[in-house]
Amino acid sequence: MLSRKGDPYPRNSETTSLDATARGFYWRSSAPSDSAGSMASPRVQIQAVVTERHRMGECPVWEEATGQLVYVDIHAQTVCRWGPHSTKVQAVHLGHRVGCVALRGQDKGGYVVAAGTCLGFLDWDSEQVQWVAQLDRQKPHNRFNDGKVDPAGRFVAGTMPEPLAPGVWEPAQGSLYSLQGNHSVLRLADRLGIPNGLDWSTDQRTFYHVDSLDYAVHAYDYDVQAGTIGNRRLLFQLPPGRAMPDGLCVDSVGTLWVACIDGGKIIRLDPQTGSCLCTVDLPVTRVTSCCFGGPDYSDLYVTSAADGLSQEQLQREPQAGHVFKVSGLGVRGRPCFPFLG
């Protein structure tokens, strides 16, 4: 069994940081510009755009066809949808802990979901799910966690064990699966800790994947034609402690943005060196995931969680569980790939 202990992720004086003030968040550069392009002191603003308190907000996906953000609340067992011009969050209850959601095809309101140990297709209008696969049958305490669609239209998602106690998980119980267009399933990896955030490089030749229990972001060679991974290597690792890497996304210049749950921040990583290029500090501790969205993909949407905080902590963090929009970063994201099947 493994558990978290120690201090939160410390600040690195060699990175760039964003500091909170009463009027917003500022970019303060203390490191050279990265090779992907200068981000010369942009004005960064952070706004809570969804102010409902989600228990475990996760896996945000920007749906370009509708101009909406789609995400899940794992512990509430819901898939959620919100638009910038809406005052209300729509939600569909699935009856199982839903780890992730992704777009399906070109149709509005069609999604692929991973809930419990099953994969299926959600029709938003009917609120019905067509389940197509069940995995990890021999591990009754596992459930699906994060997932995303690869550049060829396959849905890649990982399973993880439920905690044995708060902050304690049995190691080597997780697997990484790929749902193919014909609805067959390929296992890409096993004996993982907590499979989490994932995305692909801009040239589609590298697959990035978080194992939260290892506090690590790994890079793999990716064969986009076969949909297989190999040659795992460590890209970045947080010091064992309270903060763990969680969800991630890759921007249009290839750098990684990684949410640090219990660290209260997003970190930007250089894909070549693994160095931390900057941090974005959020007003909540349990930062879970992120994605780029908006009309030109220049806004970073960040999910968070309220579960796991004490009543005292919740009083100190009134925005825990909200969804945030970070604007003015000076970089854009990429449209999400839809599942083709």
Task: Set down the secondary structure blueprint.
Blueprint: E1 2-3, E2 17-21, E3 24-28, E4 43-50, E5 57-63, E6 68-73, E7 78-82, E8 90-93, E9 98-103, E10 110-115, E11 118-123, E12 128-134, E13 142-149, E14 155-161, E15 168-169, E16 174-179, E17 185-192, E18 195-200, E19 206-211, E20 216-223, E21 228-237, E22 244-250, E23 256-261, E24 265-269, E25 276-281, E26 287-293, E27 299-304, H1 311-316, E28 323-327
Antiparallel strand pairs: 1-15, 2-3, 3-4, 4-28, 5-6, 6-7, 7-8, 9-10, 10-11, 11-12, 13-14, 14-16, 16-17, 18-19, 19-20, 20-21, 22-23, 23-24, 24-25, 26-27, 27-28
Produce a short descriptive summary.
The protein is mostly beta strands and 341 residues long. It is built from one helix and 28 strands. It has a six-stranded antiparallel sheet, with no helix packed on it. The chain has a four-stranded antiparallel sheet with strand order 5-6-7-8, with no helix packed on it. A four-stranded antiparallel sheet has the order 9-10-11-12, with no helix packed on it.
Describe the protein in words.
By secondary structure, the protein is mainly beta. The chain contains 1 helix and 28 strands. The strands form 7 sheets. It has a 6-stranded antiparallel beta sheet, with no helix packed on it. It starts with a strand and ends in a 14-residue tail after the last strand. The relative contact order is 0.19. The model is unreliable at 1-41 (pLDDT under 50).
